[in-house]
Amino acid sequence: MLIPLLLSGFTHLWNPVGYPDVFFDEGIYMRRAVNLLHTANPQEGNVYDHPYFGQIAIASILAITNYSDIKPSTDPESLQSLYMIPRIFMGLLAVLDTFLIYKIVQLRYGGIAPFLSASLFAVLPFTWIFKRILLDSILMPLVLGAILLAIYSTKTKQKSVLIIFSGCLLGLAVFTKIPAFTMIFVVAWIVYSDRKKFSDVLLLLIPFLLIPLIWPVNAITLDQFDLWQKGVLWQTQRTNSVLDIFGFFAVIDPLMFILGLSGMVIAALRKDKFLLLGFAPFVVFLSIIGYKQYFHWMMVIPVMCIAAGVLLESIHKYNIIKKNIAFTAIVSVILIFSFVSTTLLIINNISSNQFQALSYVLENYDDSVTVLTSPVYSWILYDMFERENVPKDFSFILFHPINTEKTVIMVDEHYRIDLKRGPQLQTALDRTTVIQTFEGTVNKFNSKIYPYTNMQANGEAGKIEIREGTHVK
Predict the structure, then answer these.
(1) Which of 33, 185, 324, 393 is deepest in the core (most CB within 10 A)?
(2) 110: closest CA among 326, 360, 271, 313?
(3) Burial of 35 (C-beta count, 10 Å sphere; 0-12/13-18/19+)
(4) 106 plus 173 within the same structural domain
(5) DSSP, res 470
(6) In the prediction, which pLDDT does 409 show?
(7) Average pLDDT, the chain
(8) Is 312 found in the same domain as 425?
């Protein structure tokens, strides 16, 4: 167990802010966590897109570490450090995920599968995604913990207590992000298969259902249930193809894609309900409902690592490769290749230009200017430096007028992608001129060559333009 944990500690805690880039959604969750610290209210405004446990968890870590006492300077390194504590927290959660994967596979399959599954999760390149401050990173240990407790409940006389706690963890996972509810199928199957009692499943379902209900109940008490419905339905209006997402996985981490899906095929042939119920309901739900950003699929990465580990263990168990030295050599090559590939990624400080751009804005513009920018930067400008004319993000101009004469726009990849959301964004861009450009080191890598294909998911560390002009009237 120690080797996978050490590997995971290195890959998920080394250079926590430098790689990967700081993503749009990370700024949203940081803003909500800081808002919770200041107001003690988990609901920010009238936007109901996700439940509350994500910002509660982040805000708790910020409170424990006296984050509110931090007084950053406008220096890029100081600004970059504002993401250090939450990113380290995410890395520690990923190490915890590694431990939970090991214990789950140890109890479920035994043999060398626990070592293989946990090690693959520790070193496969795309698991860097768990370093980001995302709801999926937060809910993953809750889901894995619920599965582990359910398995333990089948091996002890104290079943009811463990089943209830398993339901609580899974309820908290759903209270973090709704798609986590799909994991009830594998947990309920584990619980029911033990004694074939529906009363055991009922014990699981009570906390699983009650905890997430806090979210709509809170909306009702605020007389905002209609806004809650709109917010939840908005999340289903994504249009990416499922095949596009699988294709994206295949490009940026072909080894995980091949090993994981091969493991799932073998699981289907073996009728391994544990793996199939941990994978299929989630994929089917996302395929139908429309949560189709690549990071939405983080929840199946541990399942794919487990499937890959079980696959490799089966090759050894059934003497498909008869010589132990040959099998050991193949596994070693896979793990070493993955570790080296991951290391080649995480040693790069690709996010530096993001904070250089922010530093430029802080040092050259004051409250007389409206700054339109990504949530990555807006919460720092507004909460940490108390700049008043800083909307939550640049989409503000789609719905509201600007009150200052001059506008500054930080134009990154996300802004360019969102131009199709409304003509105001393009009009604002057309009325500005480029004052400064921060190219970023991510563009220096050939993103068509593995492992730098992973840079395709780090576009917000690409070219950032500081543009200045008049606002849209």
Answers:
(1) 33
(2) 313
(3) buried
(4) yes
(5) E
(6) 95
(7) 92
(8) no
The predicted structure's pLDDT at residue 317: 77
Judge if 93 and 226 occupy the same domain.
Answer: yes
The amino acid at 426: Q
Looking at the structure, do residues 76 and 168 belong to the same domain, yes or no? yes
Task: Say how many C-beta atoms besides its own lie within 10 A of residue 333's C-beta.
Answer: 10
| Tokens describing residue 68 | 């509110």
Positive or negative, the Cα torsion across 419, 425, 427, 431?
Answer: negative
| Residue 74 φ/ψ, nearest 5 degrees | -85, 5
Contacts of 192 (CB under 8 A, 6+ apart): 198, 200, 201
DSSP-derived secondary structure letter, 21? P
Residue 55 shares a structural domain with residue 164: yes
In terms of DSSP H, where are the helices of 290-391?
300-317, 324-346, 352-364, 375-379
Last residue of a domain, one of 328, 346, 364: 346
Q: How many domains does the chain have?
A: 2
- In tens, the pLDDT along 249-300 reads 888 889 988 999 999 999 999 999 999 999 999 988 887 776 567 777 889 9
Number of residues in the chain: 473
Of 346, 379, 407, the position where a domain reaches its end is 346
Structure confidence at residue 464 as a pLDDT band (50, 70, 90): very high
What pLDDT does 292 receive? 62
pLDDT given for residue 241 in this prediction? 66
Q: Is 360 found in the same domain as 223?
A: no
Same domain, 124 and 153: yes
d(CA 112, CA 122): 16
Query: Which one has a higher pLDDT value, 470 or 388?
Result: 388
H or E, element range at 196: none
Q: Specify whether the CB–CB gap between 438 and 357 falls below 8 A.
A: yes
**Is residue 115 a contact partner of residue 131, using CB atoms and an 8 Å limit?**
no
What is the domain extent for residue 215?
2-346
User: Is there a single domain that holds both residue 165 and residue 125?
Assistant: yes
**What is the structure's pLDDT at 68?**
87
Q: What is the dihedral of CA 49, 51, 54, 58, to 10 degrees?
A: 90
